[in-house]
Please model this.
Amino acid sequence: MVSLQPTEPRRLYIGLMSGTSLDGVDGVLFDVGSLAVIGHVHSPFPAALRDELLALNTPGADELHRSALAANAVARAYADVVSQLLEATCVRREQVAALGAHGQTVRHQPGGFDGYTTQLLNGALLAEQAGIDVVCDLRSRDIAAGGQGAPLVPAFHRAVFGMPDWDAAALNLGGISNLSLLFADGRTGGFDCGPANCLMDGWIARHRGLAFDADGAWAATGHVLPDLLAALLAEPYFQLPAPKSTGRDLFHLAWLDAKLTPGLAPENVQATLLELSARCVADDLKAQMPAARTLIACGGGALNGRLMRRLAELLPSVTVQTSAQRGLPVDQVEAAAFAWLAHRFVERLPGNLPAVTGAAGPRLLGALHPA
Model:
């Protein structure tokens, strides 16, 4: 429970995150002074909305109208999480300085004069329903400055996970995996590695009607297919230098289907996809931070015991742990990061790291929709 006096500065922020895994909305109430999560709510997307958001990742009929309706639905889902969060923590709306809302990514095409990114969210509707200032569209300004618009969390990872005595990395295992490189000398790096859960989730949904492979149990019944793994790892994205970012624009089931040969057992494909998720992270960490001593994992993939064990096997000199072992549960980290980014916006402080995204310089990130 939180009880603030009216004269206290408002240091409470709400962070709202729905990622490429499409499993729903995570909302946290975050104290930026202590860097502590005070409350957390998760709300799954209704099946129809999840299916529509997934469909909108690829071109289709009447996209503008469908995207607008989906953005409204995402805003309502976010507003419902805000209400649940405030009720659970006994905090009043006026005690919250602002909320940082990610929105649902359906296109991510950074780079060059025509780079852009699209996160579906009606920020005005969210502000109207939540009754709190909304900071959203947090990636576009970095892209406008020539950056990738992602990842945006390394600066937050530095604040909560940085270690002054040795090189450490933070790993988000959502639909896509991304690494934050937290060097002992104060330098921070980061980039998207490749698919974490998106291909595994899609494959098990197709063959077994399940949303995800709990603890990697289905993958454990198969074995890795070396030829398929080699074909997957031949994707040019994996050889690109940082800064780089990716998403469902590249890694989707059609991308996988193009690399399959007839007669492959589905469980063996799943085992190979898990190996791909582990390998692209391990290979990147070895190449970019060879002296890493600790890897701190968060996101839904951190709950996949088989994936975590495989990472530990591939990185024998690294202590692989979850963010929960550092005091922040794996399903709260990204939402907390967007609360922190909203605070940066309110304080008129830059939210990006040019060394990570490749932007021309530090930029104030986000667009404001006042309550």
